[in-house]
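#structure-requests
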Amino acid sequence: MIAAGAVAGVLVAGLLGFAVWESAGGRPYAELASCRDVLPAQVVDTIPGTDSPRAEGEYIPAAEEDWFSGDEVLTEAGYLGRLSCYVTDRDEEPGVTVDVSLFDHKRSLEHFEDIAQELEDRADDLDRGRDDNVLEWAGISVGDGGLVTLDNYNGHLSGNVLFLDVNMVVSIGCSIPEDMDDTEVMEFMEDFSVQVHRRLSRTSERV
């Protein structure tokens, strides 16, 4: 896995029954849309606890990411860069972050399969209650499948989603308002993931 949530995986057949992109039949992504296209007003307005949310951010090529320099594994896997977006409300700290990593679809399958196995193992650990920081979790069928969790780290609640679609990996994080219960958080995170995926699919350039 790479820094800042840029790479995640997809849950595979067995635990949650999802398929990797090769069998999903989707057209690979060639270029990602802008943050404003992926997170327009009608999407960010659904974020709970906000008054005037606004999306910012940009696409960062792999060559411009300092942490990526010399990473042979990701270079071989065809990592191209990531769309790094965040949503602020009245100039406050980002309440929602969306990172979308793009890979060369001809080179990334083996790497995705390795991460998929790691994520399947992660879900198995959660199912056995081996992570006290995770309050709730579920598999989701967004894209080619993924995982949503409600986490509590040092009293800070956050909803997090990881899912894969063809040759991109999407990571979403959201700070949780105190008045939301666990069920509401999980429902919002899955619905928001569906909206993000829909916008990515409609506005990004395909091969």
